[in-house]
Specification:
This protein is α+β, with helices and mostly antiparallel strands. It contains 7 helices and 12 strands. This is Cyclic nucleotide-binding domain-containing protein.
Length: 222
């Protein structure tokens, strides 16, 4: 899964960041953002896709009750706005920078489609990535609708383990070194930071995990 999610064997920086790749044929200018700067909002024209070159991006939407729903927090090496190459004309989500010095590399949707047409390997990876992201989003929405907060946290930790985790060969525990703050994790599972702290403490007391600022250890017996 992680090779699809992060495109480990397809270098998107070479494709989408021509200042790092002299033979790239499309026009390009990376853009820097400060914390809380908006990249696009709902109903904006969907004519570009983006690669996160540095920093973090929050993706979400506003529901009918006016509440902000966070669908993803993306970091270096991930793409967003990808529905522009699937025929989406208007955005149905917003994207904003979560950190200062966030850098985004954009590419026009029609130029990306040309790259896909000329590169079978790239097209396969892009469409696998889109399918994987849609499945993950559908699963997360089901959790938000039908599962209690503790279950949502456990499921999200399993996702983090897939993306950022590795197995400790000595203890058998899963070590997750991740880029997210507790506030961001709380947003992604649809709860408050105080509630998240309570749940983390409960899971630590149960021997389910050990939690540190940038490292989570899932115990092997759980």
């Amino acid at each position: 899964m992680s090779s699809i999610w992060y495109f480990e064997d397809v270098n998107l920086f070479n494709i989408m960041c021509p200042h790092k790749y002299k033979d790239a044929g499309h026009s390009h200018s990376s853009k820097n953002y400060k914390k809380n700067d908006i990249i696009y909002t709902e109903d904006d024209t969907a004519d570009k896709i983006y690669l996160v070159s540095n920093g973090k991006i929050k993706i979400g939407y506003i529901n009918e009750e006016g509440e902000e729903i966070i669908s993803a927090i993306l970091s270096k090496g991930e793409i967003f706005g990808e529905k522009a190459i699937l025929g989406e004309e208007k955005r149905n989500e917003f994207a904003l920078a979560l950190e200062n010095n966030t850098t985004i590399c954009p590419i026009a949707a029609d130029e990306m489609l040309e790259l896909i047409r000329g590169n079978r390997e790239l097209s396969l990876k892009i469409y696998k990535f889109i399918g994987f992201r849609l499945k993950r989003l559908e699963r997360r929405l089901k959790l938000l609708l039908f599962k209690d907060t503790k279950t949502r946290l456990k499921e999200y930790l399993n996702e983090l383990a897939l993306d950022y985790g590795y197995k400790n060969t000595v203890s058998g525990d899963t070590v997750i070194k991740h880029p997210f703050t507790q506030r961001e994790i709380a947003s992604l599972i649809g709860t408050s930071r105080p509630t998240l702290n309570i749940l983390i403490n409960e899971l630590q007391e149960e021997g389910y995990l050990q939690f540190d600022r940038k490292e989570i250890i899932l115990k092997k017996n759980n």
